[in-house]
Amino acid sequence: MLYQNFPKPRPIPFAYLTVDQHPIPSIDELLSRLNNGEKFTKFDLSHAYLQIELDEQSKSLVVINTPLGLFRYNRMPFDISNAPAIFQKIINQVIVGISNSIAYLGDILITGKNEEEHLQTLEMVLKRGSTEPLSNFDRSRPPVKF
């Protein structure tokens, strides 16, 4: 028999992963939160997941196998199944309580009914997110692409 010498399956100690169930907003929720806006600002958080540093326990579980050996990640890689939910939870914590703003994966979209309201909301998000690296700042462009 060809498969006779294969080892029997065995449990792998780090194979279990608790999946984070943080919800990602639907398109309907995005449209309803931004319904009355005339001015828009979009923050594109470049390399979104790589902005999140792993704790020491997670670093020992998330490794990459190369010809030179095993190496630990210091930042959250894109191929973790929990990455979108973890990142969404962190970004939602940045904008919680700020009306006229919503986060969708690697983007934060801010709106206002007029220029003054838009700038006030923008200022609140910038103050709260000053520790977060924001890039690709596109201000007040009418067509916003997701």
TrEMBL record:
Pfam families per UniProt: RVT_1
Transmembrane spans: none
Domain annotation Reverse transcriptase: ranges: 18-130
Stretches assigned to coiled coil: none
PANTHER family assigned: PROTEIN CBG26694, RIBONUCLEASE H
Record's protein name: Reverse transcriptase domain-containing protein
